[in-house]
């Protein structure tokens, strides 16, 4: 028990510079380890598949950006079968258009009400405008329309969406949003999140994608008003559980955008490219200006019109997979009208209408009108044709939807009662 | 047991005591955690930790890689015939002047110990107890006995403890009886030696509920026997309290010990030796007195006696009594209110009148109160309604108007040569240090109390007054608000600059330069509203500091220190132009000139110059970066020169210089490597610089190795995949570093560099992985390697796995069981103290980082399923960590990340397992709503990965 010394540091710093160096090294190493981990975590583990390029080259909407896009076309690689999003994001010109044209998830039109609507589905009011894919990567943001052509190229507050020094994370990590560009307020309304900071959400349920979208988008500042580094505002769309109050809110609730129908998303469905019955669109006059298709002059034609794809053997098909065959053209007529397989052809539905047996199309009264507009990327889907048909004959009304949501609630009450009696 | 030379043993014993002294010095900072001799208590607790793991019921499934459970040579518990041997002559010979005789005796003792330990110990105890034997042989017998019970090295200590525990109980009883008897020996040496031996035995036995009668028999001594025995007995009690943890002594015994000790301190005890032993015993027993300090009457009694004892006529007793007060101030701060007025009076008197060794303790009391209040107020964090375990009583604030004048008075009592004497510590230094702590405790309130003293003395002819005034000013610069200080500092700046140039006293200049450094440290920086340094006065400041660097070494050292903080103030300025830019070249040149001074090794001058240079480099900006690029070859040349000189003479100073130069190069590499353009310019030197570092490894200095290794880590990070070209040559040093158990800092840093190299080379590290993994696994299994290196080794597994991906397959069989058993042991911390909990958390973090790296490394590989068998255990580990509720934030973040990594890599096949785990539900939910940004981010990622895994 020797006497205790109590010397304190005098006129000297508590930590030597060597200790400081050691600590800084440890900090740097810890930071580097974290970066390496994060990098590994956010490497997309699933490669997205790119099917054989469509035989039909979709014609781009004329846009000024297209020029610089078209130049590297000659150098474009052979269309690879499989690309992940990273590789795809490097595609240029026509290749990029082809690829992105296939990446959006398209809802079927609601021609009948799915079971368990109130439990398994979300509903939200679809903003009116141009549906597009927004990709932010390497300091720039590009929005592409559903045919793959570029709508805007701009700086944004999305991750790596603008050339800024302080961007966090690796610059090449990309984010992809499914949006609708709303002209009136020049805003991108985000309706789904496909990739975020390099991490793919394709395989995540809608429930999770919406959660992620809601928690992540606001963090970036992308929802802020436009600024020098942020040309367009992004905005979230209110998504509801499809119970009675949710459905009413989506249908009647006021939103800052012009509504174009209601979208229904199955909570458990992954993001599936192409047309899916796990996302549905429904419209009536109250919630959309475009319930019935219009012609090029904006007029509703007297007869319903459909666009079908002419396939091998003169078959007229919808864009569904597998396609639904509406009829057949004979070779002479095709030759006469300079039609060949792959063409998109427009028809009017005649007085004979569409005849269904057990939900299957048995007969269609089609009158040839001509080739479809060059800007069309694909034929109509079966559900779209059927929805348009039902709008003209016996539309599915909001009351029907509300009824199905209520009856579901009633049913569950009933079940409950029975159990209690037992 | 390892045989040891007795001569060396005696040397070690002395060294051992010195080490303990150093430890005691170092415990000052830790007092809050464990007031009484933290190092020692921890040692005991660590020991208990180890012993608990020896318990077979807690033992993890046996694994040859289980480094916690390295088997001890099993001691034979069968009773051996213990016969007392005649050892006197050997013990005397072992201390003989004649080398041959000594050597022979040491050899004999070694053999005896190896061949018959029970008889050996028994004979030594007999020798120590026998009053007819010579003092020299008895003393050595006691020391050897003590060393047979305890050792500095952890693994040896455990071995010795196990040996003692496995000895025949009858024999041990005989030895212990001999020891107790020796307390009554007429020989003072025998008594003082045996009290330490008894404490060592108690340190082993009491935690095992053995020797229950010990305390009772010691206490019976205290009351009756002659003074020397009472003294020895009190010392023994003191040593025991130092040795064992409070929870192994029951309250009844504690009460009796305290009663005996406090009675021994009482002025009715006429023998001063007994009183002194009692006061020192109380110092050690304070940690046992929690219950007694909660009882008003008992506490009043103890405090009264301690205060009375500070008035003893014996200076040693007064000093020891103040030491008790200092210990009480930190252990029982919240109980002090009723006594603080009396204590102030006692300490004020001691500071004024008593001998310096007593006055120093009296000042330390107030410094210690400051420490307490600073900690408590920090915990309040400015929010005074917040709950703190201990309320602040604002003792310093209340005593302020008396305390400050008392401390200012001490400042005038400087020693002539204190600035040249590295070991100096006197009342002026202690008083000034305390004044600085008071300023930090009360903030603005101190300023009006100190300013008159400064104004009165700063221009006086007597250097003592000028120095005291300057020191007082420097002391109060940390604590008060910038608003309060800025006008004063702005006013004083010119005066200080002039004094640094013109004052005739080196002493005053030293303190002036230090005070300028404090001004820059606390009142200069981009965060402050009104900068005290402007483009207008910057030139003058730099000119004066550069001039001052030519002054005597101690003044030049402080000038370098001031420059350090001047540069640091611009650290956060970013790429904005710094007022230092125009002088950058001059500053660097001046610092290099200082490093070349003949007398640069005095007063740490050279070190201070390199430290300042490092900071100047760290705080350089885009404008000055080209000059840093030019600095690189200069420093390389310096390093080259030391390596050339080394062939002629190898000495400590060369090695120290090499360390400093490697450190400087490390800072340069890190700075230049952090931006692409400068990195590009720097890379031209990479080959040469690496060659120099490799040559540094030829020296034997651990510091130089460590610095070179750190610098290589920075170089690997800056170089990236190109670092591969250095690997063939570098590898052997990497391996050497990993094998360096002795200088564990070198080993730890090398482990970190393995991580750097993994990230730089990625899969190109593969050819070296067999060697590295083998060595890392050996390191983990070693019980000689300092435990602090083990968590980073686990993290390093993760780095390797992430770099080489599925190629980690062949190491799974070794790494996974090791991780698994470490995980099991680290899952529970119950009953551990703060240090142990902190260590356990760092261990957990290492294990989790390993899992993270392994899972991510295998992601997307066809061999992913190899990890499936380990998934249940990993999830269990996460669950038990969650249940235990004592993870720190870092572990929480890593743990929830591992959950995501597992889900991400194993995908749907682990879905059901994940859904069964608590972690994927409650733990994840908690983390998702965490306030900690990093935890939340990891949790969100984990949620995403899990949602993908289970939605298939």
How would you portray this structure in words?
Chain A: It is found in: Cytoplasm; Nucleus. Chain A: Belongs to the snurportin family. Chain A: Functions as an U snRNP-specific nuclear import adapter. Involved in the trimethylguanosine (m3G)-cap-dependent nuclear import of U snRNPs. Binds specifically to the terminal m3G-cap U snRNAs. The complex is a heterodimer of chains A (422) and B (952). In chain A, a hairpin with a 2-residue loop joins strand 3 and strand 4 (140-145). In chain A, strands 3, 4, 5, 6, 7, 8 and 9 form a seven-stranded mixed beta sheet that branches. Chain A has a five-stranded mixed beta sheet with strand order 1-12-11-2-10. A five-stranded antiparallel beta sheet of chain A has the order 15-14-13-16-17, with no helix packed on it. Chain A is elongated. Chain A has 422 residues and is of the alpha+beta class. The longest helix of chain A is centred in the N-terminal third of the chain and has 25 residues, at 17-41. Chain A contains ten helices and 17 strands. Chain A has helices spanning 17-41, 66-70, 85-90, 93-101, 117-120, 206-220, 244-252, 331-336, 382-393, 398-421; strands at 105-109, 121-127, 130-137, 140-145, 150-154, 175-182, 187-196, 199-200, 233-236, 240-241, 259-266, 274-282, 305-311, 315-317, 325-328, 344-357, 360-371. In chain A, helix 7 (244-252) runs antiparallel to helix 10 (398-421). Chain B has 952 residues and is mostly helical. Chain B has a domain at 336-383 and 390-414 and 424-465. Chain B is built from 44 helices and no strands. The interface between A and B is large, with 40 and 80 residues.
């Amino acid at each position: 028990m020797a006497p205790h010394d109590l010397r304190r540091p005098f006129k000297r710093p508590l930590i030597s510079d060597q200790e400081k160096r050691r600590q800084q090294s440890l900090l740097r190493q810890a930071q580097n380890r974290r970066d390496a981990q994060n990098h590994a975590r956010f490497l997309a583990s699933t490669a997205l598949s790119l099917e054989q390029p469509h035989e039909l080259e979709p014609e781009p909407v004329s846009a000024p950006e297209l020029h610089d896009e078209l130049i590297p076309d000659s150098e474009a690689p052979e269309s690879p079968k499989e690309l992940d999003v990273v590789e795809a994001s490097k595609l240029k010109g026509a290749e990029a258009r082809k690829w992105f044209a296939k990446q959006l998830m398209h809802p079927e039109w609601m021609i009948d009400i799915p079971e368990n609507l109130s439990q398994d589905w979300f509903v939200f009011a679809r903003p009116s405008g141009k549906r597009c894919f927004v990709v932010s990567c390497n300091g720039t943001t590009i929005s592409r329309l559903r045919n793959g052509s570029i709508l805007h190229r701009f700086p944004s507050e999305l991750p790596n969406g603008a050339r800024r020094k302080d961007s966090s994370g690796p610059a090449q990590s990309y984010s992809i949003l499914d949006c609708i560009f709303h002209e009136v307020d020049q805003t991108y309304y985000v309706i789904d999140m496909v990739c975020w900071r390099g991490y793919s959400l394709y395989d995540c349920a809608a429930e999770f994608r919406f959660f992620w979208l809601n928690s992540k988008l606001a963090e970036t500042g992308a929802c802020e008003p436009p600024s020098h580094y942020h040309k367009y505002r992004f905005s979230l769309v209110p998504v509801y559980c499809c119970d009675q109050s949710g459905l009413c809110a989506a249908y009647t609730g006021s939103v800052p955008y012009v509504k174009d129908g209601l979208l229904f998303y199955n909570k458990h469905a992954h993001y599936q490219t192409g047309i899916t019955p796990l996302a549905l669109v429904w419209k009536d006059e109250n919630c959309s200006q475009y319930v019935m298709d219009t012609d090029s002059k904006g007029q509703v034609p007297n007869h319903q019109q459909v666009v079908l794809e002419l396939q091998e053997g003169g078959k007229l098909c919808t864009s569904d997979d597998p396609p639904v065959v509406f009829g057949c053209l004979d070779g002479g007529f095709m030759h006469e009208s300079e039609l060949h397989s792959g063409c998109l052809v427009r028809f009017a539905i005649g007085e004979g209408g569409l005849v269904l047996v057990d939900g299957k199309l048995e007969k269609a009264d089609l009158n040839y009108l001509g080739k479809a507009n060059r800007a069309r990327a694909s034929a109509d889907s079966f559900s779209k044709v059927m929805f348009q048909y039902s709008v003209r004959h016996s539309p599915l009304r909001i009351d029907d939807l509300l009824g199905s949501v209520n009856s579901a609630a009633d049913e569950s009450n009933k079940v409950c009662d029975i159990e209690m009696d037992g | 047991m390892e045989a040891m030379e007795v001569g060396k043993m005696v040397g070690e014993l002395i060294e051992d005591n010195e080490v303990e002294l150093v430890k005691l010095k170092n415990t000052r900072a830790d007092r809050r955690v464990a007031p009484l001799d933290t190092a020692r208590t921890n040692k005991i607790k660590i020991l208990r930790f180890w012993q608990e793991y020896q318990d077979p019921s807690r033992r993890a499934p046996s694994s040859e890689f289980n480094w916690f459970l390295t088997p001890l040579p099993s001691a034979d518990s069968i009773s051996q015939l213990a016969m007392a041997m005649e050892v006197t002559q050997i013990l005397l010979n072992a201390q003989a002047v004649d080398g041959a005789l000594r050597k022979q005796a040491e050899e004999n003792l070694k053999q005896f110990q190896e061949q018959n330990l029970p008889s050996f110990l028994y004979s030594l105890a007999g020798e120590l107890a026998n009053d007819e034997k010579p003092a020299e042989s008895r003393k050595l017998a006691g020391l050897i006995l003590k060393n047979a019970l305890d050792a500095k090295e952890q693994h040896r200590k455990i071995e010795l403890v196990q040996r003692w525990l496995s000895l025949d109980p009858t024999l041990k009883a005989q030895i212990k009886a001999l020891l107790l008897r020796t307390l009554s020996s007429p020989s003072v040496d025998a008594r003082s030696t045996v009290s330490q031996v008894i404490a060592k035995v108690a340190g082993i036995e009491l935690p095992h509920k053995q020797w229950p009668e010990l305390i009772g028999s010691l206490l019976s001594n205290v009351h009756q026997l002659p003074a020397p025995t009472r003294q020895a007995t009190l010392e023994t009690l003191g040593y025991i309290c130092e040795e064992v943890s409070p929870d192994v002594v029951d309250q009844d015994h504690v009460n009796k010990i305290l009663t005996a000790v406090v009675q021994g301190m009482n002025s009715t005890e006429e023998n001063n030796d007994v009183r002194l032993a009692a006061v020192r015993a109380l110092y050690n027993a304070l940690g046992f007195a929690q219950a007694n300090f909660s009882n008003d009457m008992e506490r009043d009694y103890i405090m009264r006696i301690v205060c009375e004892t500070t008035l003893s006529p014996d200076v040693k007793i007064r000093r020891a009594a103040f030491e008790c007060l200092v210990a009480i101030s930190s252990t029982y701060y919240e109980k002090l209110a009723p006594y603080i007025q009396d204590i102030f009076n006692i300490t004020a008197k001691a500071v004024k009148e008593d001998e310096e060794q007593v006055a120093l303790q009296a000042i330390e009391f107030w410094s210690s109160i400051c420490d307490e209040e600073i900690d408590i107020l920090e915990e309040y964090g400015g929010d005074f309604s917040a709950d703190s375990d201990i309320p602040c009583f604002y003792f310093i604030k209340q005593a302020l108007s008396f305390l400050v004048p008392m401390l200012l008075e001490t400042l005038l009592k400087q020693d002539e040569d204190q600035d040249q004497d590295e070991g100096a510590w006197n009342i002026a230094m202690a008083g000034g240090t305390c004044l600085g702590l008071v300023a930090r405790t009360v903030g603005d309130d101190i300023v009006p109390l100190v300013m008159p003293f400064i104004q009165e003395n700063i221009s006086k002819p007597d250097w003592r007054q000028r120095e005291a005034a300057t020191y007082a000013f420097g002391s109060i610069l940390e604590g008060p608000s910038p608003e309060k200080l800025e006008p004063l500092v702005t006013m004083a700046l010119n005066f200080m600059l002039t004094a640094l140039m013109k004052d005739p006293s080196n002493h005053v200049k030293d303190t002036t330069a230090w005070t300028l450094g404090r001004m820059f440290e606390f009142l200069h920086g981009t965060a402050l509203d009104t900068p005290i340094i402007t483009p207008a006065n910057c030139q003058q400041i730099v000119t004066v500091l550069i001039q001052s660097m030519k002054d005597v070494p101690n003044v030049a050292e402080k000038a370098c220190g001031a420059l350090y903080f001047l540069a640091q103030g611009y650290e956060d300025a970013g790429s904005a132009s710094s007022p230092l830019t125009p002088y950058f070249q001059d500053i660097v040149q001046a610092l290099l000139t200082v490093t070349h001074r003949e007398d640069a090794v005095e007063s740490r001058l050279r070190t201070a110059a390199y430290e300042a240079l490092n900071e100047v480099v760290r705080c350089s900006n885009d404008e000055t970066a080209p000059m840093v690029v030019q600095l690189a070859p200069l420093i390389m040349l310096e390093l080259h020169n030391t390596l050339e000189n080394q062939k002629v003479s190898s000495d400590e100073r060369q090695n120290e210089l090499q360390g400093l130069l490697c450190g400087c190069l490390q800072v340069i590499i890190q700075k230049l490597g952090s931006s692409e353009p400068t990195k590009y310019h720097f890379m031209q030197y990479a080959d040469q610089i690496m060659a120099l570092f490799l040559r540094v490894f030829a020296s034997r200095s651990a510091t130089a190795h460590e610095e070179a290794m750190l610098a290589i880590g920075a170089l690997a990070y800056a170089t990236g995949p190109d670092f591969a070209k250095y690997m063939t040559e570098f590898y052997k040093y990497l391996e050497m570093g990993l094998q360096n158990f002795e200088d564990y800092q070198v080993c730890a840093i090398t482990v970190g560099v393995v991580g750097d190299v993994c990230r730089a080379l990625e899969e190109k590290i593969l050819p070296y992985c067999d060697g590295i993994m083998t060595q890392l696994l050996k390191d983990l299994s070693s019980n000689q390697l300092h435990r602090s290196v083990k968590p980073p080794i686990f993290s390093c597994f993760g780095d390797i796995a992430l770099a080489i991906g599925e190629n980690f397959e062949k190491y799974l069989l070794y790494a996974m069981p090791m991780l698994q058993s470490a995980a099991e042991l680290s899952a529970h911390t119950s009953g551990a103290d703060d240090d142990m909990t902190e260590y356990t958390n760092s261990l957990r973090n290492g294990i989790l980082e390993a899992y993270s790296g392994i899972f991510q490394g295998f992601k997307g590989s066809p061999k992913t399923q190899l990890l499936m068998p380990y998934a249940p255990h990993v999830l269990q580990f996460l669950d038990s960590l969650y249940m235990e509720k004592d993870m720190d934030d870092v572990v929480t973040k890593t743990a929830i990340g591992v959950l995501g990594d597992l889900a991400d890599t194993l995908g749907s096949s682990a879905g059901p397992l994940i859904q069964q785990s608590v972690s994927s539900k409650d733990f994840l939910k908690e983390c998702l709503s965490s306030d900690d940004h990093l935890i939340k981010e990891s949790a969100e990622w984990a949620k995403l990965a899990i949602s993908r895994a289970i939605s298939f």
